[in-house]
């Protein structure tokens, strides 16, 4: 955990591309380096160390990806024309219909969703910086999870909120897609970032509630994922190839100046919609 905080002290602060690539290369090779260095070591010791190293490597990968999204989104949030177009498109979304459909699945309180919708529009209208958006997202998490503080149910409630947030945002993105919103590309990017940052916030809140480090929390499932990979020796190599392919596509679709996020990036909007993961304001928040 200390290494993560040294390498990436602030996930939103710009990181030089050379350093980002160095960190990702390090994360990619770490497990094999560690395994090769522990020949003739008891199997259980190897398993424990490799599991921890795997959680560490995955965290570095996620944080560098989050940082990359943050810098791409920063350009959108600083573009007045794009913000105005986003507000215009957002005001055409049928939020009553979104809430009606999503509440059937998420069972979220209307007043909570409406307040988040209004807050999101207001924050967008004020053309806040990325750091101000981060404060808003953190406040949303605090507000929604406040009833579960110091409760054994906190981790479960936090993860459930994450699912609801993603579901609501996907419903809003769907509405924007069907309306062929001119700012769909910008919303898609912002949604990817906010989903990833919300995951980051929840990860840290759960770790704090359990009195553990985020690495330890994520490490609980690292051994399971490793076990599945061992069942298929080609799986890890395939995932590495897919990751490299995704990185190349990401460089093309997330320009640092935001210039490629206009209407050209909307073709075809349905294709983009299948690949996104959530952001936005309409968030399924708390349980009744």
Secondary-structure map:
Blueprint: H1 2-7, H2 17-37, H3 43-77, H4 80-90, H5 95-106, H6 110-125, H7 130-145, H8 154-178, H9 184-210, H10 214-231, H11 235-253, H12 269-275
Protein name: RFX1-4/6/8-like BCD domain-containing protein
Region (Disordered): 227-288
Organism: Oryzias javanicus
Keywords:
about 290 residues, mainly alpha, 2 domains, 12 helices, globular, RFX-like, RFX1-4/6/8-like_BCD, RNA polymerase II cis-regulatory region sequence-specific DNA binding
What pattern of helices and strands is seen along the backbone? HHHHHHHHHHHH
Oligomer kind: single chain
pLDDT < 50 runs, ≥5 residues:
245-288
The rounded distance between the terminal residues' Cα atoms is 35 Å
The residue-averaged pLDDT reads 81
Shape: globular
Q: Radius of gyration, rounded?
A: 20 Å
β-strand percent reads under 5%
